[in-house]
Structure formats: structure tokens, C-alpha cells
Amino acid sequence: MTEQTAQQAEKAQKDQTAQQAERDLTAQQTVDPFDRDDLPAPPGATGALLRSLLSAHRARVAVAALVLLVKEGAIQAGPLLVAYAIDEGVPAFRAGDHGPVLAVALGYLLCAALSGLLQYVFVRGAARINQDVLLDLRGRIFRHAQILSVDFHERYTSGRLISRSTTDVESLRELLSEGLQELIGVVLSFVSISVILLWLDLGIGAVAVASFVPLALLVRVYRRRAGAVYAERSTAIAGVIVKFAETMNGIRPVRAFRRERVNDAEFATLNHRHERSNGDALLEMARYVVGSRLVANTAVAGMCLWGAYRVASGSLELGVLAAAVLYMRRLYDPIDRLAMFLNSYESAAASLTKIAGLLAQEPGVPETTAPAALPARTGAPGREVVFDKVRFAYRTGGEVLPTFDLTVPAGQTVAVVGATGAGKSTLAKLLARFYDPTDGAVRLDGVDLRDLTTPDLRRGIVMVTQEAFLFSGTVAENIAIGRPDASREEIEDAARAIGAHDFIKSLPDGYDTDVRKRGGRISAGQRQLVAFARALLADPAVLILDEATSSLDVPGERAVQRAMDTVLAGRTAVVIAHRLSTVEVADRVLVMEAGRIVEDGAPSDLVTDEGHYAGLHQAWRESLVG
Predict the structure, then answer these.
(1) 3: number of Cβ within 10 Å
(2) How far is Cα 557 from Cα 472, in angstroms, rounded to an integer?
(3) At what angle do helices 524-538 and 488-498 cross, to 10 degrees?
(4) Is 397 exposed, middle or buried (CB count within 10 Å of its CB: 0-12, 13-18, 19+)?
(5) β-pairing, 572-576 with 413-418?
(6) Contact 525, 560 (CB under 8 A)
(7) Tell me: the pLDDT tens digits for 376-434?
(8) Of all helices (H) and strands (E), which one includes residue 598?
(9) Would you state the pLDDT for residue 339?
């Protein structure tokens, strides 16, 4: 094979990969609104959101509008002064009276100085309003995203949330900082100049007003076409961010499975889509600007010819014509600025619609409006857990738990085992109230979890997952997440009880060591020990361990199991286990299959039967020998 043939083959392979990536993306976008980045906003939600953002700043907005109005008056006084100078000042100057000309010059200078000063005042005030509004909006997005259910976050990627709080908020910033000033300036110019022209000469004013009709039609067509273009552009930007964030977060499997070429093709498809949407936006703006300038230049040229004829015939004063020409130019000069406003407006409108759609999403596990209190704990810290005729199905799949009943007495440790997809993790998520049951109830000491406030629920139930997530910050801060008001002594006591104190003290800054992103500075086993110290410090009544040792090596698993003995003492615990070594700490074992409990008993009893658990136990022992 020649070098040229090899290059052609490689290019064909890249083209084929890119085409397949685009087909895959198109197919994904027809499945689910979440995949299309298109969360529907209720009718009127976008306008209501903008009004609510500005309502707290009504007084400052009113002052800014007044300043802009006075500035516009100072600007529009200029051509009237020119008309007075030509028709009255020049004849008086020729007659030896310099007063009118000097008065006009002084008035012109004062108007220019006043308009510049007011522009500074307006820009400063508008900038403060702008930043306060954006601060409020970003805060709303962040707070709302945190209260939305796990189901929402599993479907709506973090990249899209980032796009909503960055790119889309930035579009609103451009509208507030530049676009609204342009709009108000254009509207004031159109109104004031139209009134002045009609006052100066009815015929010239009528020509100016008549030219608004084709301009209004151009604006209407531009808004209709640009709205769809900017909605597509916002979606395309979000797609680029999502792909980038997904790839960087999964860089290890990307490198391990050599997905660079496939990712390049998919990213190129998204990037080209973004490029096309930007090009379409610029094209629509260019069409509007060309059309509006054609209308403006035609109207000014026609008015000049007609006005010159009238001046020559004596029916119009030269100063009035000069003022009218200046006003007509000022009337149409803002057209480009209006295009910039429309550009900012359509971009911001598309972004606000997406933000409004996000903020309109209701939490899947809403806060109760009639909270119930848990009974006081007596003796051991544990509480009774009851699954009462619970049924559950995910939105995107079939039923996982069909009529599930379970009672876990206070202080009992229950291990849940079974094949992948048996419903073990779903059980844990319902107990942690990441989801609410489709039917039935999960109760804690007789109280439905849906009747507990979020603080009571989080104090009562704590979950330790397979991937012990640590936030950027110190070790002490990560341990204290469950009890932010804990003292350093209490933090260290919890770590010491778990067996994590020695390794923490050996870190460069001890408890003040920054663990960095996702706790990457320490090992998986050490992260898990920190997570157990966090759980012990939080002192929950119920502890959920969701495969908490499955990713650890043998030494790490043994260290964590020793920590488990301390954490589980006296507490109610549900342990989701793949490794049967974890089951050794349990008082009771549940074997699940297809969302049902098929075996229930003490580990020592089940291992002697010829059932599912006995088979799993035998397979586990053989794997240890192997």
C-alpha cells in the first residue's frame, strides 16, 4: 500500500468515525428531553424570572432610567441649537450682535459635558445592578441544583449545569450591561426625535415616522429567525462543555481504552455544530443591518432632496433643514446599536429560557410541609427501620422493587447480598431518601421519611458509599462535614476511634493537609477511613454502607472492617455487600433477587443451607483459595 493510499484510508476512517458520532448524537437527542438539553419552561416563566431578578432593584432601576432620560434630552438639544444658530445667530452675528452665537456655543458645550457626566453615572449605577442580578441568579441556580433529586442529576449532566451558570448567565450579563442601555437609548431617540421633527415641520416628521414601518418589519423578521438560531447556539455550547467535562473527568478510562480518536470525532462534531450556530447568528444580524441601513439611507436621501427643493422655493428655512438632517442621522445611527441589542436580547432570551426551565424543575424528594418529630432515642443509638409495602420504579426503566416489606430492629446490622441488578442499591437509596417510593412508605421509628425535615433526616441516616467522596480542603474539614460545629478535639477523637489518626498525623500538615480534588492526595483505603470518621462524628441512628470495601485491597479492607466494628456498635446498619468478607460483621443476611428477598437469616444459619447464600459463600471461599 502506498503512502498516499494509506493517507486516504486513514482519512476515510476518520470521516466514517465522525459520521457515526454525529448519527449517535442525533439518535441520543431524540430519546429524552434531558439529552436534548431542552428542559421545558412553563409559559411566562422567562419573563417572571427576569422580573423577579430586577424587582429587588426597582428604585435603582428607576434612578438609572431617569438619568438616561435627562442624558438623552441633553444630547437631542444639540441640533435645535444648530438650527437656532443658523437661522438667528448668524444673522445677528453679521449685524454685530455676538450674543446668540456665544450662547449657542456655551449651550452646546454644557449639553456635551452634561451628557458625558450622566453617561458615567448611568454606567456606574447599571454596572452595580448588573452584578447584583447576576450574583442572585448564580446563587439561585446553585441552590436549586443542590435540592434537586439524585434522579435529576443522573439524567442532567454536570456539564449542562455548568453551562447554565456560566455561558447562559454571561449572555444575560451582556444584555444587562450593554443591551438595555442601547434599547432605552434607541427608544428615547425615536420618540424624542419624532416629536421634535413633527414640531419643526409636519411633512419632514411624517417622512421620518413613515420610515419606521419597514424598520419594524425588519425587526420582527429578525427576532423570529434569530430566536431559533440562538436557542440552537446555546444548546451547541452546552454540548461542547458537556463533552469536554465528561472526557476530562473520565480521562483514565479514555486513555486505558484508547478512546482518543472516537472522542476527537465526537468533539469535532459538537464543535462544528457550535461553529455553524455562531455563523448562522452572524448571518441573521448581517441581513438585518444591511436591510435597516438601506431603509435609513433611502429615507435620509429622499428627505434631503425634498427639503432642498422646499428651501429653494422658500417654504422651509435652511436652519430647520440642517437640524432635520442632523436629527434624521441621529434617528438612524442607533439602528446598528439596536441590532446589537437584538443580538444580546435573543441570546439572553434563549439562555433565560433554559435557566427558567432548570429552575422550574421540582425536587423529586420535596421538603415536607407538615414535619413530624422523631421520638427521643433511649439507650443504644439505633432506630427501627421499616419498609412498608414499598414499590419503586425508576423513570427510565421498569419496576425494581415490587411490593417490598422489611423490618430492621433498632441496633441490628443487616447485610444485603445478591447479583447485580437485584435491587440492593435501590433499597439503600430509598432508605437514604435519595428517592421516594412509588408506593408504600419507608419509616424510621414509625415516622415516614417523607414527614421528616432534611436536617432531621440527615442527622438520623448517613450513607457511606463505595467511592468515599472527599471535597477539596483539609482532612479535618472533610471529617467535620457531618457536624460542622465539632471541635478539633472531637474530630481527632473520631479519627482515633476509627484507626485513622496515625496516618493523618503522618501527612505533611496533619489534619490541616489539603486532600485536593476528590481526595486524590491520599489512597482509597485512607479516604474510606476518613469517610467512616465522618460518619462516626455525625453520630447517626442508621448507617448505610453501600459496597464500602469493594474497591479496596486486602490490607485496606481489613483496616476499614476494623473501623466498621467501631462505627456500627449499637447502630442500625444496612450493609450492601459484594464481598462476603463484609457480611461477617452482620447479625442478619438478606439475599435479594429481582427486587425480592429470597433468603433471610443469620449468616451462620444460611451458610449451612443449600440456598443462594450458601452458594455465594462457597464461591467466595473458592476464590480465596484460587
Answers:
(1) 7
(2) 24
(3) 120
(4) exposed
(5) parallel
(6) yes
(7) 877 667 889 999 999 998 876 678 888 889 999 988 989 898 888 888 888 988 998 88
(8) strand 596-601
(9) 65
Rounded to 5 degrees, φ, ψ at 123 are -60, -40
Q: Which amino acid is at 102?
A: L
Q: What is the CA radius of gyration of the chain?
A: 35
Residues of the chain with pLDDT under 70: 1-38, 178-183, 252, 256-257, 333-340, 342-343, 379-380, 396-397, 518, 548-560, 579-581, 619-626
CB 416 within 8 A of CB 601: no
Burial string for 161-199 (b: 16+ CB within 10 Å, else e) reads: bebbbebbbebbbbbbbbbbbbbbbbebbbebbbebbee
Distance CA 65, CA 34 (A): 40
Separation between Cα atoms, residue 261 and residue 256, nearest integer Å: 13
Q: Is 223 buried (19+), middle (13-18) or exposed (0-12) by CB count in 10 A?
A: middle
Dihedral angle of Cα 46, 48, 50, 51, to the nearest 10 degrees: 160
**Cα dist. 17→225, 273, 524 in Å?**
33, 16, 37
467, 551 in Cβ contact below 8 A? yes
pLDDT at 251: 75
Give Cα 313 distance to the centre of its chain: 66
Rounded Cα distance between 526 and 544, Å, is: 19
Q: 239 and 274 in contact (C-beta within 8 Å)? A: yes
Which of 286, 293, 321 lies closest to 306 in space, CA to CA?
A: 321
DSSP state of 12: H
The answer to whether 395 touches 589, Cβ cutoff 8 Å, is no
Residue 162 corresponds to which cell in the numbers above? 455548568
Q: In what order do the strands lie in the sheet with 461-464?
A: 461-464, 542-546, 572-576, 413-418, 588-593, 596-601
Q: Give CA–CA dist 208/296, Å, rounded.
A: 9
Q: What is the DSSP letter of 510?
A: G
Question: Distance from CA of residue 612 to its chain's centroid?
Answer: 46
Q: And the C-alpha cell for 377? A: 432515642
Site of grid cell 484460587? 626
Q: In degrees, to the nearest 5, what angle opens at C-alpha 581 toward C-alphas 580 and 586?
A: 80
The grid coordinates of residue 184 equal: 432605552
